[in-house]
Design a protein that fits this description.
The complex is a heterotrimer. Chain A is built from 10 helices and 12 strands. Chain B has a domain of 272 residues. Chain B contains 11 helices and 19 strands. The longest helix of chain B is centred in the C-terminal third of the chain and has 20 residues. Chain C is of the alpha/beta class. Chain C starts with a helix and ends in a 6-residue tail after the last helix. In chain C, 57% of the residues are buried. The N terminus of chain C is likely disordered. Classes of the chains: A alpha/beta, B alpha/beta, C alpha/beta. Chains in contact: A-B, B-C. Strand 19 of chain B pairs antiparallel with strand 24 of chain C.
Chain lengths: 253, 442, 505
């Protein structure tokens, strides 16, 4: 069974008329990494928000099936507990909530929703310590409020740390490479690659081919004007790098 | 005496009921009840045309007669104990003084062993009061122009007089319990005298069953000697029908530290006023508070910080979370008198509006007559940030839990001002649980 | 550079620091002292008003008699004897001037001293050609900063001259004295007069409604961008005179106008009362930008004399997407009592208030704004900079209120006070009322003195104390200065330096 099955998805912003996604079809199987590339305004971030269930977006047609269930019927936190994880393009700052408290609350809420026992504090601490070492995240950072005072690179690493701790089935990475220098990019990519497994799938959304040198996709899709205009293997990313988006976007218009 | 011919039933009861009540109240000249009653009959209950009471119209809000409580009530000891046990300070090692319906109950209290703390029931001590009590009580309160203080002084039935002569190791908690019964007014007084160099940690709990109908007036006078330290944490969890009127008057010596925090979740109407006056230099006062209100609750915090001398610091930090049709009010005045140079005064009041019809009124005020000062205030009002909520939910945290987390984070900045870590934890827990508690009516 | 100019100007001033403190020797026609129905009738008759206007005034007068002077402001002055004032004063020679030729040359000289470009020969020529389409107007018009400015000059109680009328008329803009508007455009006046500030709004506004003598009237038609800045100069000259002018500006759908107002008065030992009312109305998509530089005589160093400036200014964003912006520079008057406000009635409407209030000597300022959010998605912005020096008192008093149905109301308020010297007071009294949860209000206020480090730095670079203060204060008020039309900016910077003269050392 596929992890994610998107059929003829049409999406617009509430109270507005223009469709942003105009008929997306996409099937993602366990173990696969799909890259979605496209110019600004092609609908990339909208796709990630619709997958995670943000308000303000209205699905006017089509369906999203996640592990055989209707994803669109699920609340934001239900999706998360079912294993859908969005690594935000702009991770938000939450003053007053320490990162550790946040992580523990999230993990235990998800475990509870799945009918699993809550993790004890020592077991949780051990888990976080392991994962954060891999991502070169200092313990001091975890005591600070979520993302508050973090640099751009630190925020992205913290997102991947959350992904590592929460162990989702479907990881959606929204422009995780934006704002990262090459060293930070490598660390983030390593963290992501470590999470690749036969029963987990990833959708990597990006503007540039650069990220895909480090997170090598199985499939590449080109998104333009709300439609997937071309799909192929990882070589498609290189092709795009050379010819630019223009040759593809013309087909879509 | 009859300056106000159009008295409300509440006012009329207060003025005309005194003659009958007086005999049952503790008696001593230094209590100055008659002068206070005269002042109250002139003033009446404050109303919205009095600028300081613009947002809290007591003539309107104190609906009907609330005769003064004078007698000791027969109470269900188990009920009182179960209420007292809900104190958030319960897990802390502390001695307690329990007051039920306006009277001290020694059998329910565990008083501090004689040492640096002397605690007296004002009622018990009235006839043979030590000088520190009879000479101080009423001197910090300007009762001529404050109706609540005047009413309290006229009718106080009991209260705690506390004298700290050294460093008190153990915190002290005052527990004010009210029982269900006929509508009534309960007036109690607290006097805290902290000698030079001494320190005091005082907790205060107000608690009652949801259906108890009463007006509770509490006037607290604090006198800090030079170098004294006072840490005060109050939880106001009065019943849902109660009117809570509290005045805190503090006079601070030099090099003193005054910290007062209040958490308010109770009462139909509450108005908590703090008046802080600096009498010596290099003193710091920190007043903070959290209001968690729902339904049609009305909560008002009014502060006047009077920098009468140079080189002092004041900090105020208030956080209000308002659900349903709740109304929160913050008025804070920072005065810097001529020559009070090098004053450093900062104030912040922030409201989180959860219910669509919640209301926040704020009047932060600066009145400054010295130039070498750094003063400022801020006030904000806004909804819960949807983006934050989405982020938390996208990590699998259910909506109610996510909101509770954000509420606790919002008020956390004020709770941080409490120095005792165990108390901070208890307050954070109270804030985190508040949403579910009030939603489920638990 | 501007700051150095300021210093120069300060040095030019002799003992008499008030630059505009001269008196114009002009024969005036005065109404007898005192206020009664007869005086109200006298004023109305003098202006040859229609019956409905007289009735309006009389109604206001009757209401005023039942009202009491407000006492809530932080200002202190002896009780005003309202029967000891003249309620009408007009320069004798100006009964209906047909051209500037007919205007008393002394009066023109007065305006010349005030720096009003009215004095120019070119303009005189322009007036002479009144009624004719004139090329000269366009070619030789006095340039005042970047663009042209049409002026309505009000001397004591009457409007003496309005310039550029023809050119404005071409654009369909009506710009005239309110007396003229009552006669020429009664429908507009009837519809809008008192619709923003009701005739019994407050004590002073009601008094104004009864006895207002003149003022400006502006109507900008639909879709019109007013081709030039409009401006009024007010001048109180006569002794024991109250000045009660009334301004009404209507911006019809999709129109825009920028309006400037300047005020001066001679030095006199007695206090003079100025109780004006300004009403602004913007319909859908319209915008009014109203700027004031108020430099009435502030009284002497001991607090003797000076203008009592009790003014009611209010704008009504009646239409959706409309905008009203108030900018004020208050340096004069013995007492200022003034709260230019915005009623944000139309959905998506915007209100702004930018203020510099400087008090020195014994001046008392109690000023601020009200932003009343009624419509949906309305926003407002308040930037107030108060500077107190000498023995003055300077209070910011403001209200920001979002009503129940005003969803998504937004406000940002920044109130800063600067103290110069230890004998003055600076007070901040904001009222913030959010009556629905979608309101987002942010209010911030600070009070401080000029930092010693800044002073030291400036002085180390060679500025003397006074120069350093002028420099730093101009930096402090920068956010507001930038809101002023170019024409006023340089002048205001100078004025700030002059106003603070003698505040240090």
């Amino acid at each position: 069974m596929s992890i994610l099955d998107i059929k003829n998805l049409h999406v617009k912003i509430e109270d507005e008329d223009t469709e942003i996604l105009r008929g997306i079809d996409l099937t993602v199987n366990p173990g696969e990494v799909h890259a979605i590339m496209g110019p600004n305004g092609s609908g990339k971030s909208t796709l990630s928000y619709v997958l995670s269930g943000k308000d303000d977006y209205e699905v006017t047609d089509g369906s999203i099936t996640y592990k055989g269930e209707d994803l669109l019927e699920m609340e934001v936190d239900e999706r998360a507990s079912a294993g859908v994880f969005l690594a935000f393009q702009y991770p938000i700052e939450i003053p007053g909530v320490p990162t550790m408290t946040f992580l523990r609350t999230a993990l235990n809420a998800q475990r509870k929703a799945r009918g699993e026992e809550e993790l004890t504090t020592p077991a949780f601490m051990k888990l976080v310590r392991e994962k954060s070492q891999m991502l070169k995240i200092r313990q001091e950072m975890l005591k600070r409020p979520v993302n508050v005072g973090f640099s751009g690179g630190e925020k992205k690493r913290a997102e991947i740390l959350q992904m590592a701790v929460l162990e989702p089935s479907l990881c959606v990475l929204d422009e995780t490479d934006s704002g990262l220098d090459i060293d930070a990019l490598k660390i983030v990519a390593e963290g992501v690659n470590a999470l690749r497994s036969p029963d987990r799938a990833m959708v990597v959304i990006t503007h540039y081919q650069r990220l895909l040198e480090y997170i090598v996709p199985d499939y590449v899709h080109v998104l333009s004007h709300g439609r997937i205009v071309k799909s192929g293997g990882k070589e498609l990313a290189l092709e795009l790098e050379e010819s630019g988006y223009e040759s593809f976007t013309e087909q879509a218009a | 005496m009859s300056a106000n011919p159009n008295r409300t039933p509440a006012e009329e009861t207060f003025v005309s009921g005194f003659a009958a009540a007086e005999a049952a109240l503790p008696s001593a000249d230094w209590l100055k009840r008659k002068q206070a009653l005269a002042a109250f009959s002139e003033l009446g209950l404050p109303h919205r045309r009095i600028e300081a009471w613009k947002y809290t119209d007591l003539r309107n809000l104190v609906d009907g007669a609330y005769p003064a409580q004078t007698e000791t009530t027969l109470v269900d000891v188990e009920q009182v104990q179960s209420l007292a046990q809900q104190s958030i300070f319960g897990d802390l090692g502390r001695s307690t003084a329990v007051f039920v319906d306006g009277r001290f109950r020694s059998e329910l209290s565990s008083l501090p062993s004689k040492g640096a703390i002397e605690l007296l029931s004002i009622s018990d001590a009235a006839e043979n009061a030590p000088d520190w009590l009879s000479n101080t009580l009423g001197t910090v309160v300007p009762q001529e122009d404050d109706a609540v203080s005047a009413l309290n002084t006229a009718y106080m039935s009991d209260g705690a007089a506390i004298h700290i002569t050294g460093e008190s190791k153990e915190p002290l908690e005052l527990v004010f319990v009210h029982s269900a019964g006929q509508p009534r007014t309960v007036s109690q007084r607290v006097l805290v005298v902290v000698d030079a160099g001494a320190s005091c940690e005082l907790f205060e709990t107000h608690i009652a069953p949801a259906d108890a109908r009463y007006v509770s007036t509490v006037v607290t006078e604090v006198v800090l000697g030079d170098g004294a330290t006072f840490d005060h944490v109050k939880t106001q969890r009065d019943g849902a029908e109660a009117v809570h009127l509290a005045n805190l008057h503090a006079k601070l010596g030099a090099d003193a530290t005054f910290n007062s925090f209040s958490a308010t979740t109770g009462g139909r109407v509450s108005r908590q006023q703090a008046f802080v006056e600096y009498a010596g230099e290099h003193t710091t006062a920190n007043i903070s508070g959290v209001y968690l209100l729902s339904g049609t609750q009305h909560g008002d915090s009014t502060l006047v910080v009077d920098h009468a001398v140079p080189n002092c610091v004041s900090r105020e930090m208030f956080k209000l979370v308002l659900d349903d049709q709740a109304r929160g009010i913050f008025q804070g005045k920072v005065m810097v008198r001529p020559h009070a140079q090098k004053t450093d005064g900062k104030q912040m009041a922030q409201a989180l509006l959860l219910g669509p019809d919640a209301e926040f009124d704020s009047k932060p005020e600066l009145e400054i007559f010295a130039d070498d000062v750094v003063c400022g205030h801020g006030a904000t009002a806004g909804e819960l940030d949807e983006e934050l909520l989405f982020y938390l939910r996208a990590r699998g945290i259910p909506k109610d839990q996510a909101m509770a987390l954000l509420i606790a984070a919002f008020v956390g900045e004020a709770v941080e001002e409490v120095s005792n870590e165990a108390v901070r934890d208890a307050l954070n827990e109270m804030a985190t649980n508040w949403l579910t508690t009030h939603k489920t009516g638990a | 550079m501007a700051d150095l100019e300021t210093i120069e100007r300060v040095k030019e001033i002799d003992v008499d620091k008030y630059k505009y403190g001269f008196k114009t020797e002009i024969e005036s026609e005065l109404a007898p002292k005192g206020l009664s129905e007869d005086i109200v009738r006298f004023i109305s008759a003098k202006k040859d008003e229609p019956e409905w206007m007289l009735e309006w005034r009389l109604d206001a007068f009757r209401r005023w008699q039942t009202m009491e002077e407000p006492e809530w402001a932080r200002v202190d002055y002896p009780k005003i004897d309202f029967q000891d004032l003249h309620y009408y004063a007009a320069p004798k020679t100006t009964e209906g001037p047909k051209s500037l030729d007919e205007v008393d040359p002394q009066l023109l000289e007065t305006y010349a001293k005030l720096g009003i470009p009215l004095k120019e020969q070119e303009l005189l020529a322009g007036v002479r050609k009144r009624g004719e389409p004139s090329q000269l107007d366009d070619a030789d018009a006095p340039s005042y900063g970047s663009g042209k400015v049409a002026i309505d000059a009000v001397f004591d109680s009457v409007s003496v001259v309005t310039t550029f009328k023809e050119e404005l008329a071409k654009a369909g803009v009506i710009f005239c004295s309110i007396s003229e508007a009552i006669k020429e455009h009664p429908d507009l006046v009837k519809k809008y007069l008192g619709s923003v500030v009701p005739k019994s709004d407050n004590f002073y506004a009601t008094l104004n409604s009864a006895v207002f003598s003149d003022g400006s009237f502006v109507y900008i038609p639909k879709g019109t961008r007013c081709p030039m800045e409009l401006s009024t100069y007010f001048r109180i000259n006569e002794e024991n005179t109250g000045q009660f002018e009334r301004t009404l500006i209507i911006a019809d759908e999709g129109s825009y106008v920028s309006y400037l107002e300047g005020c001066t008065a001679p030095m006199r030992d007695e206090n003079q009362l100025h109780a004006a009312v300004v009403e602004l109305v913007t319909l859908d998509d319209a915008e009014i930008k109203y700027s004031t530089v108020q430099n009435w005589y502030p009284g002497d160093a001991d607090g003797k004399g000076g203008i009592y400036n009790f003014v009611t200014k209010r704008g009504d964003c009646r239409g959706k997407n409309s905008k009203i912006s108030w900018t004020q520079v208050e340096t004069g008057s013995a007492i200022t009592w003034k709260y230019p406000s915005c009623i944000l009635r139309g959905d998506n409407s915007q209100g702004e208030f930018y203020s510099i209030a400087i008090s020195n000597g014994r001046q008392q300022v109690d000023s601020g704004t009200k932003m009343i959010h009624l419509g949906k998605n309305t926003s407002s912005r308040i930037i107030s900079k108060g500077i107190s020096a000498g023995r003055s008192s300077n209070t910011y008093r403001g209200l920001v209120s979002a009503h129940r149905k005003a969803t998504n109301a937004r406000n940002f308020t920044q109130c800063d006070s600067l103290l110069i010297g230890d004998a003055c007071g600076a007070h901040t009294v904001p009222y913030i009322e959010a009556k629905n949860s979608s309101a987002t209000f942010e209010h911030e206020a600070t009070t401080s003195k000029i930092s010693d480090d800044q002073m030291f730095y400036a002085q180390q670079r060679g500025l003397n104390e006074e120069e350093a203060v002028a420099l730093i204060v101009n930096g402090f008020v920068r956010d507001v200065l930038q809101q002023l039309p170019m024409e006023f900016m340089a002048e205001t910077q100078k004025l700030i330096g002059i106003s603070l003269e003698g505040s240090v050392g």
